[in-house]
Amino acid sequence: MSDTQNMTETETPKTGSDAEPGFLEAFLDNKPEPAAERDPELEFHVIEMVQTIYDPEIPVNIYELGLIYELTADVKGNVKVIMTLTTPHCPVAESMPGEVETRIRGVEGVNDVSVELTWEPAWDQSMMSEAARLELGFL
């Protein structure tokens, strides 16, 4: 039987400040933990590692190539990477995200790694760094 069915005709459901005590407190206690503070030094070391990973078809590392859309590291050692590939038909489409994750896990201070592959926005040559364009003869 529901609470509504248990009430007499003169009773009204409890709402707002009449609701069971502790509900609001329990709700507020379960709010998500705030994101940990970013760790610029760890981010620097992770970027250094990512710069050692090369696209097999282009002689430029994936960072300078512009395949890393987002890279963050926090003081708890959690690293998040959002990346893409030059094309969905790239021969390393299945292995590259795993390689990136494995290599980042080897950086001192890293506890957890999340690598997400995205196709939006689609990669194009304008995303390359100036150094990459110079190396490939585009400048």
UniProtKB/TrEMBL annotation:
This is DUF59 domain-containing protein. Residues 28-39 have a biased composition (Basic and acidic residues). Pfam families: FeS_assembly_P. Residues 46-116 form the MIP18 family-like domain. The lineage of its organism: Bacteria, Pseudomonadati, Pseudomonadota, Alphaproteobacteria, Emcibacterales. It comes from the Bacteria. It comes from Govanella unica. InterPro entries: Fe-S_Maturation_MIP18 (IPR052339), FSCA_dom_sf (IPR034904), MIP18-like (IPR002744). Residues 1-39 are annotated as: Disordered. SUPFAM superfamilies: Fe-S cluster assembly (FSCA) domain-like (SSF117916). Residues 1-15 have a biased composition (Polar residues).
